[in-house]
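testing teh design pipeline on a random one, pls ignore if ur not involved
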């Protein structure tokens, strides 16, 4: 996976895109977990996916309150 290059404008003005970005990564982690045989790695990928979803939900909750 390639890591995107972020700049200050992405951070300051692109916050509405973070939930979608995190959900894309959650889907990637879930897809990878389906192809992995090692149960420890599989569980870690699924945990990362759930964390991405949780943070995306929290960002959206924060955005709707402010």
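output:
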């Amino acid at each position: 996976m390639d890591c995107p290059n972020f700049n200050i404008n992405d951070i300051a003005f692109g916050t509405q895109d973070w939930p979608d970005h995190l959900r894309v990564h959650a889907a990637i982690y879930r897809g990878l977990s389906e192809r992995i045989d090692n149960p420890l790695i599989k569980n870690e990928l699924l945990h990362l996916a759930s964390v991405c979803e949780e943070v995306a939900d929290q960002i959206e909750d924060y955005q709707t309150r402010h």
